[in-house]
Amino acid sequence: MHRFRFILFRPLQLIPVLFGISVITFILVRAIPGDPARILLGTKSTPEAIARIREQYGLDEPIWLQYLYFIKNLLRGEMGKSILYKSQVLHLVGDRIMPTLNLVIYSVILALVIAVPLAAIAATKRGRIADHIIRLVSTAGLGFPAFWLGIMLIILFSIKLDLLPVSGYGSSFSDQLHHLILPSLTVALALSAIIIRSLRAGMIAEAASDYVQAARAKGLPESSIFWRHVLPNSIVPTINLLAINIGWLIGGTVVIETVFSIPGIGQLLIRAIFTRDYMVVQAVSLVFAVATVAINFVSDILSVAIDPRIKL
Amino acid sequence: MSITVAASSRFNWLPRFGRGPFPLYAGATIIAFWVIVALLTPWIAPYDPITQDLSQTLQPPSLAHLLGTDNFGRDVLSRIMWSSRIDLQMGIIGVVFPFMIGTIVGSLAGYFGGWVDAVFMRILDVVLAFPFLVLMLSIISILQPGLISFYIAIALVGWVSYARLIRAQVLVLKNSDFVIAGKSLGFSHLRLMFKHILPNSITASIVFSMSDVVLVVLAGSSISYLGLGVQPPTAEWGVMIAEGQNFISSAWWMTTFPGLALVLMAFGFSLLADGLGEKLGVRE
């Protein structure tokens, strides 16, 4: 019953956060000195266009009413037009979401493929030489700038070995996969450095718990203790760990999209900042923030649904 | 595979990583190295970091230019040395302001509780909802690209971690005997907060600030790499890597060495944070 209530009422806690996100993205554009209508339309705007945007956003009204106009437009799916691309910013974001989404998904999969076995080795060989090496490498990895790591991988795999493309995205699915190997590997290596340490600590704590002692006492071989008990129980914390780091992951993809010239939302954001295309900056930060909140929310619900031990 | 709960006693001759004084000393040595480089650069750097020498462009590492030259004939080693001043400065200023703001907010929220706490914690939730780098980039877009904007953005975004750490400690300490004793002696709120509770609650934040330096320096160099932080021709590691990216097939040294410098500095601070955490008994 508790569990049911949690899943029912947890969404209500999102309301203040979403409200705060909308306020910050609203302030973001209003904080720019100058006439908001000119800022939203660019310098070469006609008087009619300025009058239209003044009315649509209520720019002559007091600030709190302007905020309500902003929310009204937002709920109608209108976040304004890009100065540079001359189209609705939400369409722009929609067109570019797939490369970013693919990059995030491949990076997470690769990171798990790298981090879970290494954390398992470090946890099972605790205090031995393998453990020391894995911990040393992951601590050093924390300090690796992802953009530099990406360029080093380009030099190695694209220029010296000529195996993978230097940059770009590609059109067909397999072509896109081919183009995303290096960018995903870059993000995955950086992400692994972050998650290996907590994963190792989690596995060690799990291995010290009573049910593992019980399993050992009933004579279960160590390998099945690990595979059947320790590993499955480390999965929920791992999902949480990934969700907590989703903000970091999104930031990482913004930079990596620039390194590899991937036409995703991150690249859109960086170009928009350079061209002072504020509507796009506003929309992208809103989309990223809502995505972060949504992913953390799903992870919370998932871990409660999967793991009956979580106390509410 | 066997799972041993107690650490194995074999390989004791290895410098035991993550335990004892080894990470602390190694980290302190690396950071001391960078501080000395940063301080002495004006006298020991072999060349000027900005002056171009178009007869010496894209030279591979040699005795005259130990780490080679870039596309304007500038000495990569000298530029790396000058960069260390800016990146260290980014790490320090980019941590000090969030630290101060976070400490004040966390103390107030934890000490007074009630609506003060509720307001600050909701603001904190919202800041945390944004991806760190995206919020920083958005703030920089309102201001203008440059180092000052970076400092403002990091102060506005970075305080949340410190506020949370301090608040958690203050919540525990404000009910302890020495605070109640102080209260009954009629000490003011400010005196209790900053002279009695704060010194006892700040250790975790100090340890965290060491690993935060790594995040801040990486964020600063990433933003400079994107062209929104330190502006060329100033030498900064992220800027140098961005400039070198156009020459990766002909001049690998332009990107490789500045990155290695960045890695070494970050590694130093990570080790320092590890060692300090171990020594002071703080677990992250």
From TrEMBL, chain A:
InterPro entries: BPD_transp_1_N, MetI-like, MetI-like_sf
Domain ABC transmembrane type-1: 97-299
Species name: Dongia soli
PANTHER family cross-referenced by the UniProt entry: DIPEPTIDE TRANSPORT SYSTEM PERMEASE PROTEIN DPPB-RELATED (PTHR43163)
Keyword Signal appears in the UniProt entry: no
Record's bilayer topology term: Multi-pass membrane protein
Keywords (A to Z) from UniProt: Cell membrane, Membrane, Transmembrane, Transmembrane helix, Transport
Transmembrane regions: 12-32, 103-124, 136-157, 177-196, 238-260, 280-306
Major localization listed first in the record, in broad terms: membrane
Annotated PROSITE patterns: ABC_TM1 (PS50928)
Taxonomic lineage of the native organism: Bacteria, Pseudomonadati, Pseudomonadota, Alphaproteobacteria, Rhodospirillales
Protein's UniProt name: ABC transporter permease
UniProt record similarity statement: Belongs to the binding-protein-dependent transport system permease family.
Source taxon at top rank: Bacteria
UniProt subcellular location: Cell membrane
From TrEMBL, chain B:
Domain of life: Bacteria
Similarity-based family: Belongs to the binding-protein-dependent transport system permease family.
Compartments where located: Cell membrane
CDD domains xref list: TM_PBP2 (cd06261)
Identification of the protein by name: ABC transporter permease
TM region(s), chain numbering: 22-45, 88-113, 119-140, 147-166, 206-230, 250-273
UniProt keyword list: Cell membrane, Membrane, Peptide transport, Protein transport, Transmembrane, Transmembrane helix, Transport
InterPro entries referenced in this protein's UniProt entry, alphabetically: BP-dependent_transpt_permease, MetI-like, MetI-like_sf, OppC_N
Pfam family, one: OppC_N
Primary location recorded for the protein, binned into one broad class: membrane
Every ABC transmembrane type-1 domain range: 84-273
Topology within the bilayer: Multi-pass membrane protein
